[in-house]
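Structure tokens please, single chain.
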Amino acid sequence: MMSETIYSQIGGRDAVEQVVDDFYDRVLADDQLADFFEGMDMAELRAHQVQFISAVAGGPVDYGGADMREAHDHLDISGSEFDLVGEYLEQALVDAGVDDENVSAIMSEVAALKPPIIGN
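Here you go.
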């Protein structure tokens, strides 16, 4: 029997969309981060984030987002800002009832993006 993916364990697309909505609510409520999203197409960003989380969770999705460095280069994101965004994603996953092991697996994929996103 195939082992169940994290994606299906956490509830599939509906659950991922709920996590992403919660995540962006948290991020946009933070004055330190909200400016990064000024003038951005939030519907497109949400769709990319749903794709990304689905892909790292083993869902039936190929992540088609721009190269991470290229997509974030102009934003000049600091390490502490990256970490803060990560904390909000982790909180959204936990609040959605994702178990610790799956949260860790998703967050390790996110952590791997820190060097290209902060430009190191």
